[in-house]
Design a protein that fits this description.
It contains 10 helices and 6 strands, in the order H-H-H-H-E-E-H-E-H-H-E-H-E-H-E-H. With 181 residues, the chain is an alpha/beta fold. It has a 6-stranded mixed sheet, sandwiched between helices.
Length: 181
Amino acid sequence: MYETLVAQGRDKVHTGLAGIDSSKLKKLRSEHLKACFNLIDEMRHKLEFVARIKGVSFIDDAASRSPMSTWYALETVEGKVVWIANGATDSIQRASEYKRLRTLVENKVERIICLGNSALYQTTFGDIVKEISQIETMAEAVTKAFYSSEENTKVLFSPAFENGISYEEQGESFKHEVNEL
């Protein structure tokens, strides 16, 4: 679903949302509104604000398991970003997918912290990001992100790659480690 929105572009999505007929909104019954608000819980781990600690904001986007979903997250988050991502193997096959992120990464990302193999990120972004780290645990990743960030930096956990661990588990792990800081 998010890939479809991303493909349309931000302006087109905003224009479409603004064009919703207000008379249709007025006809919604309370049970429809309740159902809409219940969907919010289903959006856990998708650009979910976790905490702000000493001026550093932490955002859980564990549901983004593809480069295009991460593109949307990077496009949405304002300001400088420290990006925590899943390490990726089969670098040659995936490099073209990740190259689509280059402009956003160049303009927003100060550091990339990989949970696992960082070769793909080194190859794709090594010339435009000042630091790309390879870390083994979420605890190390969150700690490194926090202590290497300046005030007003956003720490974004957006995996961009399926690593065999459910996004719910990774998202909860990220939140736990942030709350341990």
